[in-house]
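Notes, p. 3: input format for complexes.
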Amino acid sequence: MISNEPVDIEKAARAVKIIAGLQRELITRIQTVGDCGPFLAAVYDREGRLIAKEANSVVQDKCSHCHAEMNALKAAERKLDTFDLAPHHVSLYVTAEPCIMCLGGILWAGVDAVYYSVSSRRVEEITGFDEGFKSGWMSEFKKRGITVYGEIETALGEEALRVYMQLGKKVYKPR
Ligand SMILES: [Zn+2]
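Output follows (175 residues plus zinc ion):
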């Protein structure tokens, strides 16, 4: 696990539990329903209540913006009836490191913290998805007061990506 602040055992334990649950759900969904890309994200409030959970739906929705993080943040904003999540003190949990687009989306949404599993480097190695250029984003988030913990429960996260690839699902890329 890596982070942009000293590791808080409680935050880390909560993140492991939530992310492992997302990964298991994602694997089942890819294997049985097959209606999503291989990424799942969830927004929780600081009391630990789930606000929104969404998968990547780029192919299904025919929209290049429909990454799991963007879908989950949009659903959370709708549910809380706001364009700014900051007053609600929410955290975003996601099965892989956010891509270049989602980093911007996360900043504008106003989350307190981001917890992710598989690194972009491993996502690119396993699947061929392009995650974009992202230099020093964790320290940039720290400057803006956003907590980041990464590479949480990576074995199960990588398994979800392998299952997706083994089933011959679509890998799309920007040109
Ligand atoms: Zn993304």
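The chain has a mean pLDDT of 96.
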